[in-house]
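Budget justification aside, the reviewers requested a transparent look at the raw inputs and outputs of the sequence design task funded under Objective 1. We therefore reproduce one unedited record. The lines immediately below are the structure tokens for a 361-residue chain.
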């Protein structure tokens, strides 16, 4: 199977006077699974549709493999696409849905049978080949839609929120299927979603987008642990990262002051020279730990609410100055509303952001 890289340079897309993407650059390696992640309206689907040739660009260049396809027709780009809606032919069987595009392209019947059989086996559709879409579940229909793209043997596969119409259990099952499929095929895949769990579990790299701009392009681990700015930090992670406003001080050793609480910054890896300035401290709920309230490094907080979550619990607290935050604890942790706890905030788990720009410090 052909595997193509994708290179996008200075891409510009607009509708009337509205600029959606401006001077956007992106490189996708051959065989890479890249996820475009962001909220509705951030430009991720527009970017995917531009790669597919479904919308016109105003400037820049799109290359797939060694070809400039900026102005090429979708059928000439060597891509296959899976849409949010299944878009299956209701009167055709699964077999005919899978083979229709190949027949239109006048592929020899023996090759069609081989490709359809291979895709059906990979996606566990063999026993469903003679059924119509109305006789299938939502998950089965989406597998047929994926199979219809697979039989194309394309250089790049594009997925536009393919799981958003499914319930939570089916989404989890299909995520595993897509992950296995990529591991087996080694194909180049670009996947659009607003679901951070899909992004973190599927991607080799994630491009987090906001306002038509790629805010951070990196591995899931790096984006989760070292978000480039406050938007990425707040968008990726569930429960959300906690944010505390305060200021950085150097006197007496580097520290972050929030109200009456002093957080030691020894162990934090600054990206730029340290200076006294207003800042925002971020820390994820799973990194805060319960310790004895008499411990020298303990931060005391009052419990407001405990949310049991099965395997663990989410505990909501407030500092003395009223700042609210949450942390994860064992399901059987002894904490209830009104309790005062001693907590450890490890500096190595901090993310510090400039108070004005929101960029990581």
């Amino acid at each position: 199977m052909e595997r193509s890289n994708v290179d996008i340079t200075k891409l510009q897309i607009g509708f009337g006077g509205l600029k959606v993407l401006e001077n956007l650059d992106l490189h996708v390696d051959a065989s890479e699974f890249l996820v475009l992640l962001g909220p509705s309206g951030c430009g991720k689907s527009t970017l995917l549709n531009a790669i597919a040739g479904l919308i016109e660009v105003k400037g820049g260049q799109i290359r797939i493999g060694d070809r400039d396809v900026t102005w090429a027709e979708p059928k000439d780009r060597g891509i296959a696409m899976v849409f949010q809606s299944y878009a299956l032919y209701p009167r055709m069987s699964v077999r005919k849905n899978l083979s229709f595009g190949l027949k239109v392209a006048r592929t020899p019947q023996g090759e069609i049978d081989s490709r359809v059989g291979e895709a059906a086996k990979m996606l566990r559709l063999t026993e469903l080949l003679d059924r119509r879409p109305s006789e299938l579940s939502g998950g089965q229909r989406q597998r047929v839609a994926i199979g219809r793209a697979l039989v194309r043997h394309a250089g790049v596969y594009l997925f536009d929120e393919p799981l958003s119409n499914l319930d939570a259990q089916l989404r989890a099952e299909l995520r595993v299927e897509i992950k296995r499929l990529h591991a087996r095929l080694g194909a180049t895949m670009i996947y659009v979603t607003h679901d951070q769990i899909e992004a973190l579990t599927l991607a080799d790299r994630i491009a987090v987008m906001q306002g038509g701009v790629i805010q951070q392009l990196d591995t899931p681990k790096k984006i989760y642990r070292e978000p480039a700015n406050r938007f990425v930090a707040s968008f990726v992670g569930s429960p959300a990262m906690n944010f505390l406003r305060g200021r950085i001080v150097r006197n007496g050793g580097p520290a972050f002051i929030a109200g009456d609480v002093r957080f030691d910054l020894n162990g934090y890896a600054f990206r730029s020279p340290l200076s006294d300035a207003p800042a925002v401290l971020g820390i994820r709920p799973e990194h805060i730990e319960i310790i004895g309230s008499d411990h020298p490094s303990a931060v005391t907080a009052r419990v407001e609410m405990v949310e049991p979550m099965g395997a663990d619990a989410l505990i909501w607290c407030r500092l003395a100055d009223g700042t609210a935050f949450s942390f994860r604890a064992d399901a059987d942790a002894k904490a209830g509303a009104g309790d005062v706890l001693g907590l450890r905030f490890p500096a190595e788990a901090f993310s510090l952001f400039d108070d004005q720009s929101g960029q990581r410090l």
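The mean pLDDT is 93. The longest strand covers residues 18-28. Computational costs for records of this kind are itemized in the attached budget.
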